[in-house]
Amino acid sequence: MNCDKVDQELLEELVKDGRISYVKLAEKVGLSRVAVKDRIQNLIDKGIIENFTVVINSEKIGKNVSAFFEVDVEPKQLQEVAQNLADNPSVASIYQMTGPSTLHMHVLVEDFKMLEIFINNELYSVQGITRVESSVLLKRFKNRTGYKL
């Protein structure tokens, strides 16, 4: 789906502040409030805007360790393993990647002790996982809160 210049401006403003009012958006893009509301509804209807959400600073709620995992899984068990991991409250996101049935997973936990517990009890105990590689986030330079058009 292609967006015109106005739709792109609306999306950029919504990425900056998802709570911005239709009135303020209308002022920024030079349209009426009703036209902006219609355009945003159209972006929703087309599936360009999937959801409106909030970005939470995980450290402010006590999740001080952010770790990323590459998890290789037996191909026949990929869906089951992915759903099992996705249901875990420590898993922030999980994606199927190219390669021999690989999952990429982002985990948020309180501290390194909880990371160790997650790895030993929640990850290594899952049947079908054949390999795990992990990396711990040291510093975030950019966080995906939206896509630049």
UniProtKB/TrEMBL annotation:
Q: Please list the GO biological process terms of this entry.
A: response to amino acid
Which residue range or ranges hold the HTH asnC-type domain? 1-64
Q: InterPro entries from the entry?
A: AsnC-type_HTH_dom (IPR000485), Dimeric_a/b-barrel (IPR011008), Tscrpt_reg_AsnC-like (IPR019888), Tscrpt_reg_AsnC/Lrp_C (IPR019887), WH-like_DNA-bd_sf (IPR036388), WH_DNA-bd_sf (IPR036390)
Keyword list (alphabetical) reads: DNA-binding, Transcription, Transcription regulation
Q: Does the keyword Transcription regulation apply?
A: yes
This protein's GO cellular component annotations are: cytosol
User: Which Pfam families does this chain map to?
Assistant: AsnC_trans_reg (PF01037), HTH_24 (PF13412)
Query: Cross-referenced PROSITE patterns, in alphabetical order?
Result: HTH_ASNC_2
Instruction: Give an example GO molecular function.
Output: sequence-specific DNA binding
Record carries keyword Isomerase: no
> What is the designated name of this protein?
AsnC family transcriptional regulator
Q: Which domain of life is it from?
A: Bacteria
